[in-house]
Amino acid sequence: MFLQHLLPPGAYWDSSLLTDRILHALMSSHHKYLPAPNYFKCVQREMVPYMRRIVATWVLEVCEEQRCHKEVFPLAMNYMDRFLSVEPTKKTHLQLLGAACMFLASKLKEMIPLSAEKLCICTDNSITSAQLMFFFLLVLNKLKWDLASVTPLEFIDNFLSQLPIRRESRPILRKHAQTFVALCATVVDFSFFPPSMVAAGSLVAAVEGLQIKMAGNAMMSHKLTEQLAQTIKSDLDCLRVLQEHIESLLETSLRQGEQQHSVTMETKTVCEGQDLLATPTDVCDINI
C-alpha cells in the first residue's frame, strides 16, 4: 500500500496520439475485435442477455470500487463478449468469466493490477483463485492471445481534438462521454457496433445533455453529428439512431436508479419501525 501511494498515477498524455495517422490505425483495426452477432442464439444455450447485463453491472461496480483505469471495464466486457461468441458457457460460470476478464484487462491497463485474491473477495468468495486462474488461461486461449482490443474510449480524445469545442468545456464533456461509453458496455446490443460509432454517439449525446453549459460553442450537436459521421465514415442516420438509443439507455438507467433508491429507503423505514432486538442490524442495510 505504501508503494502504491509513491507510484505516479500514470503516463502523461502524448499529443502525438491525436494525429490522423493514429485515428486511421484505430479505424482500420477496430472491426476485427467485434464479437459475433447474436451469439446468445447461435452459441450460448443456457444464458440470455439479461444475465450478461447483471454481471456487467457487477464488473462495473467492482471497477469503480477498486478505482480501476477507465479502460478496464469496456476492455473486460469486450473480452467477455468475444469469449462468449466462441465458447458455450454455463450460466453458473458467468460471474467467474467476468472476474477472469476483469483480471486480464487490469493486467493490461493498470500499473498495479487487481490481484486474484481481491477478485475472489469481490465475489463473496464464491470462486477460488484456482478457478479464476483456470478461466484466465481459458480466455487467453479462446481469444488466441489477441488482447489489443480497440475500445470506444480510445476515440474520445481524438474526436475532441478535431471538433471546434471550447477548451474549458472539454474535461466535463470527456467525462460525460466516458460515462455513456461505460453505460453502453453494460448492454450487449451496443457491443456489436464499431467502437468508433459508440464513441461518436456517446460524444454527441454528452453534448446534447450539456447544451446549456456549452452555449456559445461554434457548432451545435447536429453539426457535430455530421462531422463525426464523416470522420468515422458512417451513415448519418445510423449515427443519429445510435445516439437516440444511448440517450434512451441513460433515461432508463436513471429511472431504475430512482426506483431502487425509493425501495431502499422504504425498506430502511420499515426496519427502523420494527423491534431492533429481533432484527439483525445488517438487515436494515440490505439493498434490494
What's this model, at a glance?
The protein is mainly alpha-helical and 288 residues long. It has 13 helices and no strands.
Describe this entry's structure for a reader:
With 288 residues, the chain is an all-alpha fold. The chain has two domains: 34-142, Orthogonal Bundle (Cyclin A, domain 1), CATH 1.10.472; 152-288, Cyclin A, domain 1. It is 61% helix and 0% strand. It has 13 helices and no strands. It has helices at 2-6, 20-29, 39-42, 49-65, 72-84, 94-109, 116-122, 129-142, 153-162, 170-185, 195-209, 221-232, 236-273. Helix 9 (153-162) crosses helix 11 (195-209), helix 10 (170-185) packs across helix 11 (195-209) and helix 11 (195-209) packs antiparallel against helix 12. The longest helix is centred in the last third of the chain and has 38 residues, at 236-273. The radius of gyration is 21 Å and the shape is globular. It starts with a helix and ends in a 15-residue tail after the last helix. Belongs to the cyclin family. Cyclin D subfamily. Essential for the control of the cell cycle at the G2/M (mitosis) transition.
Count of structural domains: 2
Largest sheet: none
So what's the CATH class of the largest domain?
Mainly Alpha
Low-confidence stretches: 1-8, 212-218, 270-288
Say which CATH homologous superfamily of the largest domain is assigned: Cyclin-like
What is the CATH architecture assignment of the largest domain? Orthogonal Bundle
Structural class: mainly alpha
